[in-house]
């Protein structure tokens, strides 16, 4: 039996300094066009595209390479309806009692409320779960490490992959989110982390006229 090499040679991707500069600048301009949208078209997105996007997210780094994430892509209309009903139930409570006055004030530019029709309109809902522990083949429990950080990194790469495919998305957390585990019948070692509807923008979709922070507000370069 051939033993697997403990380490393999890294195959670098090589660009000239000028190419590195151009690629970094072009990618920034491309990603700066990414926006969160709530107005979706019901135009279908092929399952293969969703699979590719999720596989890209799975390339994220993770603590001890445990890869403590699991993605559920929901295109089934009945399941989307159940998710919307459960999410709106929690969101109505949030807007009416859980959210502070300051929180509600900060949400005013988005003109949101507890109603979330996009959860049925978007062709796919991606629910990101974090695996707080796993079981081996013998049934022994093994903890994962830096779970939130790892799943957060994977979620960021997921959003990037969605934008790269020419699709739109929204990060949504209708907390508490335990209903996802019940509706999708997920095991007890998984916890809902994030809901991301994906698809195409609706005709004449709009976004709030907001600006991202300036360079001087987000970084300091120590040379």
Gross geometry: globular
What is the β-strand count? Answer: 6
Q: Mind describing the biggest β-sheet?
A: 4 strands, antiparallel
Oligomer: single chain
Order of helices and strands: HHEHHHEEEHEHEH
Helix-strand blueprint:
Elements lengths: L16 H15 L15 H11 L11 E6 L2 H22 L2 H7 L10 H4 L2 E8 L1 E3 L5 E3 L3 H18 L3 E2 L8 H6 L6 E10 L15 H4 L5
Antiparallel strand pairs: 1-2, 2-6, 3-4, 5-6
Short structural description:
This protein is an alpha+beta fold and 223 residues long. The chain is built from eight helices and six strands, in the order ααβαααβββαβαβα. The chain has helices at 17-31, 47-57, 77-98, 101-107, 118-121, 147-164, 178-183, 215-218, and strands at residues 69-74, 124-131, 133-135, 141-143, 168-169, 190-199.
């Amino acid at each position: 039996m051939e033993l697997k090499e403990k380490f393999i040679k890294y195959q670098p991707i090589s660009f000239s300094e000028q190419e590195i500069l151009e690629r970094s600048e072009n990618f920034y301009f491309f990603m700066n066009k990414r926006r969160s949208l709530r107005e979706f078209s019901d135009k279908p997105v092929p399952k293969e595209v969703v699979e590719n996007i999720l596989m890209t997210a799975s390339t994220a780094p993770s603590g001890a390479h445990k890869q403590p994430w699991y993605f559920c892509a929901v295109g089934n209309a009945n399941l989307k309806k159940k998710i919307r009903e459960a999410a709106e139930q929690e969101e109505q409570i949030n807007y009416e009692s859980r959210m502070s006055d300051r929180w509600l004030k900060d949400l005013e530019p988005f003109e949101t409320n507890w109603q979330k029709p996009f959860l049925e309109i978007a062709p796919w809902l991606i629910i990101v779960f974090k695996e707080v522990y796993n079981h081996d083949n013998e049934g022994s429990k093994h903890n994962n490490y830096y779970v939130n950080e790892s799943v957060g990194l994977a979620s960021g790469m997921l959003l990037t992959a969605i934008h790269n495919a020419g699709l739109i998305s929204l990060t949504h957390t209708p907390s508490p989110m335990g209903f996802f585990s019940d509706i999708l019948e997920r095991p007890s070692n998984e916890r809902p982390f994030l809901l991301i509807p994906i698809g195409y923008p609706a005709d004449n979709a709009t976004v709030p006229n907001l600006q991202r922070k300036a360079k001087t507000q987000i970084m300091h370069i120590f040379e």
